[in-house]
Amino acid sequence: MPASPSSPRAAWDDQNLSNPHLVADKARRVEAMFAAIAPSYDLNNRVHSLGRDQAWRRAAVKLAELQKTDRVVDVACGTGDLSLAFASRLRQENPTPAPVLGIDFTFAMLPIAVRKASQTDSTGRGPAAAALFGCGDAMSLPLSDACCDVVSIAFGIRNVADPARAMREFYRVLRPGGRVIVLEFSLPTNPLTRGVYNFYFKHIMPRTATWIARDKSGAYRYLPQSVNTFIGRETMVTLMTQAGFTDPVVKPLTMGIAVIYRGTKP
Q1: Cα(231)–Cα(163) distance, rounded to whole angstroms?
Q2: Nearest to 78 by CA among 11, 9, 133, 27
Q3: What is this structure's pTM?
Q4: What is the sign, positive or negative, of the torsion defined by CA atoms of 7, 12, 16, 22?
Q5: What are 9-43's pLDDT values in tens digits?
C-alpha cells in the first residue's frame, strides 16, 4: 500500500515537483515536510544561507519601523527566529512590551520556538524575549479584526496554498497604519549571479541539506523548485495592493537572493 500524502516519505517526489504550487493537497504536504525537518531546520538554515538568514530577519525587523507599543504577529513563525528578533527589538524600546505572537501551521515547529523563548537573558533573571506561540493557518488567522500593528511572514508566503487569501487576512487583522512585512526568497536579477545561485540551489544544497536532516520527505528538493516556480516581485507587490496595502517597499538582500516587502494599511 502506498504511503499517505501526509507521510514524510511521500511529501514531495518527481510526480508533484514540476510546480508544487499547483498541487491540490499542497497544505498537507507542506505540513508533513516541516514536521519531518523540524529538528534540523535551524542548522540547515544557518549552513545553507552561510549565516545570512539571521541578518535577513534583522533587516525585516528594521524595515517594520517598530514603535514601543506595537503588537506583532509573526505568521509561519517556524522555530521562532523572526518572532524572537521582533521581541528582542521591542524589549530594547520598552521593558514590558506586548508579547509577540508566533503562529505556525505545523505544530512540530512550535516546541522548538517555545524552548528558545524560555531561554534566559544575559543577566539570568528571565526570558530573553517576550513571545507566545500557537498553531494557526495564514489563510484563516485565529485573531480578531484590527488587533495588531505588524504582521510578518518569513519564508512562508511561498508555502501557503493561496497567498492572495493570506494577504487579505493580514490586512484584516492589522490596525490602520499597520505594516505587513514579507521576507521571502527570490532569484537574483543578474544573469551570472542567478546561474551560480541556481547551480548551488538546485544541485548542491538539496544533497547536503537532505544529508544533514536525514530527510526522506523531499523537503530540500521542494525548496528550490518552490522558489523557481513562485510569483515574482512585481506580482507580490500586486497581491499586496489588491489586498488594500499602500506604499509598497521592495528591498532586495544579498544580491537578490532574498527580498523584504513592506505594505501599509491606510
Answers
A1: 10
A2: 133
A3: 0.92
A4: positive
A5: 558 988 889 999 999 999 999 999 999 999 999 99
